[in-house]
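W.,

You were right to be curious about this one. When I first looked at the sequence I had no strong expectations either way, so I just let the prediction run and decided to look at it fresh. Below is the sequence, 472 residues in total, followed by the output.
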Amino acid sequence: MDPTGLSRSHGKPLFKQVYDYIWNRIQRAEWTEHDKLPSVRVLAEELNVNRLTVFKAYQQLKDEKKIYVKDKSGYYVHPGISMPFDDLDYPIVSSYVQKSHLSEIHRVPAAYQFSYALIDPYLMPNRYFSEYVKEIFDLYPTVLSTYSTIQGDEELRESLALFFTNKHRLHLSQDDILITSGSQQAIDLLARMLVQPMDTVLLERPTYSAAIDIFRQQGAQIIPVDIHPYGYDLEQVELYMKQYKPRLFYLNPTFHNPTGYVVPTEQRKQLVELAERYHCFLVEDDPFREIYFDQKPPPPLFAYSTEGYVVYIRSFSKYVAPGLRIAAVCCRPSLMKHLFTVKSLADNGTPLLNQKMFLHYFKSKRLQQHIMKLQTALNIRKSIMEKELSRTNWTWDSPTGGLNLWVQLPDSIAMDMLLAKSLEQSISFVPGTICDPSKEATSWIRLSYSYINEQKLSTGMKMLIDLAEQLL
């Protein structure tokens, strides 16, 4: 797959891929009736193909009366055939599979596990769930004998709508929420629904590595947007929205993975304004909101959205029960009906037992007590990791929440060699290139302080630092 999103090894002829590209944009009303289309030369340069390939695609579209020709003027969209997003019936699924590089690291057993952005299982409410399983079956005796609805359990969606409204001013109804099996499934469903081959997608740099793999699998052209301690360069974001007309911007603005940065309130408002101005969906992934060590983070971007261009993913897996895999996708009705379709094709509904078990805990008074204990425990572990790092010349910004440190090592350290030697010593971490859509973060690593206990964390960090110093 070349950078344009066209595949020379694809089973479909190249001119048909160009045809699909043009027709998809017409269907989504990016080019509307009587709009002039790019010239053969311009489109050939944009897609990095021969002019004859573009000419053949245009000819087929003309033969099908989807476009028409004006002598000595060019190609134009035929009237009466463009369709807005609301009228699309089915998503287009990518035709090739992308490897998940992070999963390859996770497959290697490690005693000192710094690659898992998960919370230590011994910090989770295991006893509560084990004691109350029978109560779940008493309350819902047929819970194993039926499927959930595709959109998710109504009782759970009602509770979440009330929670989001009261706590974050999101003003949602239960109909605006769909339950997924974790946030990664939510990202995958949204990619299948919104992104077609050769669509442009903005991704933060660095970002959640699974999101990179998912959007690449859809054949997207990825444009990186750097994230900084102060947020984004909004002039750069606006330039990209103008120039590339991205389908969406996937972002994690609250205790960002992997940096821990928090995008300030004013930028959140401005991002929503830009999204509405340039018709770019913002897919806001928010898995770490409750894991803060100081003050509460700003409200989600969704709180500032008035025109439906923000889709909000809220995962509860990280800090309640990863094994239940519960996340909520919040969006407006124009998108929900399409999300409903792709969810039905994926699994026909998140397991009902998982939803009811989560609901029982979510409504209990113990949840807030559990979160407060987690905040304290994780802040202690972060401090231990930073204490070990303080004896090095490595650099990082200390986050005020989340599960990770984003650390820069000296350029002279060969990262592939450090990873290999670390794995030999049962130490695991995430190389920065896995989190970088451009694969340029060669001197960075992500270290998660959340998964192993304090003693192993201190020991493992000493071992990792010693290995790195041997490579200098």
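Here's what jumped out at me. The CA atoms of residues 394 and 409 lie 5 Å apart. And, maybe more interesting for your project: Residues 82-100 have pLDDT under 50 and may be disordered.

Coffee later to discuss?

I.
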